Amino acid sequence: MLSPAAFHDPELASALVPDNVPAGTSASPGRPERPQGPRAPPGLEEALSALGLQGEREYAGDIFAEVMVCRALPQRALPRTVTPEMRALVVDWLVQVHEYLDLAGDTLYLAVHLLDSYLRSGRVRLHRLQLLGTACLFLACKMEECVLPESASLCFLGAGSFSQAELLRAERRILSRLDFRLHHPGPLLCLELLAALAGSNPQVMLLATYFLELSLLEAEAAGWEPCRCAAAALNLAHRVLDVAGSGVEPALYSPAELGPLEPCMARAVLLGPAPGRAAIFLKYARPQRQGTSLFAARLLRRPQPGPP
C-alpha cells in the first residue's frame, strides 16, 4: 500500500524488502518484486482496536506502512505572487468554512495538501486564491465526506466572489495539474496511531491536535512528512503537559528530526489570534475543546524539560 513513487526509489525499496527475501529476487516466483512496509511496532494491532478499527487488525502492517511512509511535498518555494501570509489567510478561511459545514477532520488536511500541491506546481493568479482554496476543499469533500456540500453553498460562503461555473472550472484545472493524484494519508490518523501506541491521555491528544492544526498555517509545514509532523505535535504536547508516555518502540524519529518542527508549532501558538489567522485559535478556545488555545501559550512559556 505504499505510494507508486516509493516503488521507483531504489534506496527505499531495498530498505523495505523483507529480511528473508534475497536482494534482487521476487518475494514469490512469477510475481514482480514488491517492497514491504516498515516493520510494525509492538502494540500496533491493539492500538488499531483502541481506535475502533478491530476489523483492520489483519492489515495492521499495511496500514502502518501507508500512513508512516507517506512522502512530503517537494521543497519548492511558493509562486512569487503568493506570500506565506497570503497562503495563511486562505487556510484560515478554509478552517472557518470547514468548521461551519461540520466536515471531517481529514477533509481539512487534504484540502490544504491539494492547495499546497497546486501552488507548488505553477503560477497562480492572486485574485483567484480564494476560489482555488474553495475548489480544493470541494475536491477534498468528494474524497472524504459521505454527504457533499452543495457548490451553491460554497459560492455563497465565498460572498459571491466566484460563480458555480468558475468553481467547477477551477476543480477541473486542479485535477488536470495534479494528474488526478488526490489520495494523501493525512497526519490525523498518524497522530491517533502514535497517541494510542504511546498511551497518551485525552488532554495530551487534544493539545497535540491543536498544535497539528496550527501547523497548517505555516507554509514550511508542506515540506514535512505527515507522520513526522504528527510525531512532533504529540511529543511537544507531552513535554508541555509534562506527561510521560510509554513511547513508541522502535522510535520512529530522533529528537534531531523533530527539532525543526516543534519550534515552528510553538511560534504559531505564541502568536495567538493574529489578524488573518485567528480561526484555529478561536475554534480551540470554545468549551467543546476545553479552551485549549487559551492555556496552550501559557504552558509553552513555562520552562520546558529537555529531551530524554
Automatic annotation (TrEMBL):
Species the sequence originates in: Molossus molossus
Family per similarity comment: Belongs to the cyclin family.
Keyword Nucleotide-binding: no
Stretches for region Disordered: 1-42
Tagged with keyword Nucleotidyltransferase: no
Cyclin-like domain location: 92-176, 189-267
Superkingdom classification of source: Eukaryota
Keywords tagged on the record: Cyclin
Name of the protein in question: Cyclin-like domain-containing protein
